[in-house]
Design brief:
alpha/beta; DNA-binding
């Protein structure tokens, strides 16, 4: 899942980027509202984390413009504003949730997970796909209760396909949602990740869990 952090405090911004990447997310960042708004309009982020008090464009204005552009991602607003009407304004403008500064990073992670569940129509941290269970909080996959060790890149592909199960997902869509601007992608990055994922998930003699739809993308088979 790909996130955008729009925060003018360099220390907090860099801390959030490191922490969120360590938690398994692809993360881009912007230091002001103008830069953040441009990025949010260009890329379909799953979650935007937006500080209220931003230079160049106020955070409320960023939220309003993002919603006006039709971008579907969830928005978590960070605010040092204590007045109730400020929080109400943020939610009315299109923010999905808010977190008051100072905050605990664990709570921010929990709120991001909750927003992702809402975005993808899920009620639980766990996604069941046949004998597989993905624990999206712990970034872990089991089959019939036994742990399947996956590298972060493979897990990320599996989680996104699981969240989009039943849909045909293009390679470009996977790239957009799973890799941030710091990642160098080769022409076969997604193909290689899918290949390794199949080796870890499929058993000899069984049909592959991931079907290639030639010229279209990949589909997770839920039978």
């Amino acid at each position: 899942m790909r996130l955008l952090v729009i925060e003018d405090s360099k220390i907090l911004r860099e801390s959030l980027v490191v922490g969120l990447r360590d938690a398994g997310y692809a993360v881009d960042s912007a230091a002001d509202g103008e830069e953040g708004l441009w990025a949010a309009r260009e890329i379909d982020y799953d979650v935007l984390i937006v500080d209220a008090m931003l230079p160049k464009r106020h955070g409320f204005e960023v939220v309003r413009e993002v919603r006006a552009s039709g971008r579907p991602g969830a928005i978590l607003m960070l605010t040092a504003l204590q007045a109730i009407h400020d929080r109400i304004d943020a939610l009315d403008l299109g923010a999905d949730d808010y977190l008051t500064k100072p905050f605990d990073f664990g709570e921010l992670l929990a709120r991001v997970r909750a927003l992702l569940r809402r975005c993808y129509g899920q009620s639980s941290e766990k996604i069941a796909i046949g004998p597989f269970v993905l624990d999206t909080a712990r970034k872990r996959v089991t089959r019939d209760g036994a742990n399947i060790p996956l590298r972060p890149r493979e897990y990320a592909v599996f989680e996104y396909l699981a969240r989009r199960r039943g849909d045909v997902v293009s390679a470009s869509d996977l790239e957009t949602h799973l890799y941030d601007e710091s990642t160098e992608l080769s022409s076969n990055t997604i193909e290689a990740a899918i290949s390794m994922l199949r080796k870890n998930l499929d058993r000899p003699g069984e049909s592959s869990l991931i079907r290639t739809r030639r010229g279209m993308g990949y589909e997770l088979i839920c039978e």
